[in-house]
Amino acid sequence: MIPRLQETVFYQDPYPVFISPSRVVIGPKTYITHNITSIGMASIPPTKGPVMAFAIIGFILLAGGLVFVFLNPTVAVGLLLVGAPLAIIGLTILSFAKPRYALKLVIAGGNNEFDVLVSPSQSYIQNIVNAINMALAYKN
User: Where does the chain show beta strands of DSSP type E?
Assistant: First the structure.
């Protein structure tokens, strides 16, 4: 039986993320550390377009309801009953929207930057960035 050498591990979690001086494993992909030329973290803002449209439609219906109050009270009540919940739901969802964070890698031989891992937790991504930086420094 051939004895196995113990490998230094800088980070490991069940995702699976595994970082050592020789390789970085993130999910099903394995990257050789000496091929990594750049690493970083980026913030991805939340998608607001559809929710913003939802809120705007609600406010338009509310405005229409206020206009129709004196002209046709029945239509006004209908517009207010539909518009108010739409506006409230839209604004509530917008207030809870949070950014996501991406682990970015640049591999030697290419100018492409890859988002290899995206998470809502900034500290999780930062810990992985720090571990990869330690692995890169360990090799040099």
Answer: 11-13, 17-19, 23-26, 29-32, 36-44, 100-107, 113-119
Residue 5's pLDDT band (cuts 50, 70, 90): low
Spacing of C-alpha 90 from chain mean position: 20
Separation of CA 18 from chain center: 21
Q: What CATH number is given to the structural domain containing 22?
A: 2.30.29
- 59 assigned to some structural domain: yes
The verdict on pTM exceeding 0.90 is no
Q: What are the residues whose beta carbons fall under 8 Å from the beta carbon of 45, sequence distance 6 or more?
A: 99
Rounded to an integer, what distance in angstroms lies between the CA atom of residue 10 and that of residue 24?
A: 10
CA 11, CA 18: separation in Å to the nearest integer? 6
- Regarding whether 53 and 91 lie in a shared domain, the answer is yes
Count of C-beta atoms within a 10 Å radius of residue 9: 12
Domain hosting residue 78, numbered range: 49-96
Q: What is the mean pLDDT of residues 122-128?
A: 96
Same domain, 61 and 74: yes
Q: Are 23 and 55 in contact (CB under 8 A)?
A: no
DSSP 3-state of 83: helix
